[in-house]
């Protein structure tokens, strides 16, 4: 307890001997009633309404912006692939599907064999970088009047992506088998 609390507690009889003046309670109640009967100023209500409206506007703007960006990215990707020649579309679909399968295989091996997450992250990053390079090459291919050399570069880039993923799969499998061998030797 603080010292002031102790002083009040110890000297309570000195403080509690006087009663309030006559009419004190009535004056207090009339002031309280006046305070409660005063209308709330419209400015306070307006400020609250404006705050709610501003918050709603911010949320709507954020949602609309997110939706717009999502739709725009989908339209850009579909426009890019719809303008491509049939042969390039097939190459793009084949290697993208193959890369997705390899990533799923790496992920499954990593989960099954408790491989470090960095291996999966490396594979994902590698695919992302190489897909960005492929998009750039495809844009160049379309701008250069479908130059055969650029088309071959696109195919080589996709093949590089798949071979890199194959190497990661092999690395994960080798790490798994060497870990299992060392565990078997420790048991014996």
What's the mean pLDDT score? 77
Oligomer: single chain
Q: What is the rounded Rg?
A: 37 Å
Helix content class: over 70%
- Treating each run of at least 4 consecutive H or I residues as one helix, how many helices? 7
Terminal Cα span: 70 Å
Contiguous runs where pLDDT drops below 50 for at least 5 residues:
none
How many individual domains? Answer: 2
Task: Outline the structure in words.
87% of the residues lie in helices and 0% in strands. The chain folds into 2 domains: 44-83; 84-179. The protein is an all-alpha fold and 188 residues long. It has 7 helices and no strands. Helix 5 packs antiparallel against helix 6. The model has no long low-confidence stretch (mean pLDDT 77). The radius of gyration is 37 Å and the shape is elongated. The chain has helices at 3-10, 12-15, 24-37, 42-83, 86-113, 117-143, 148-187.
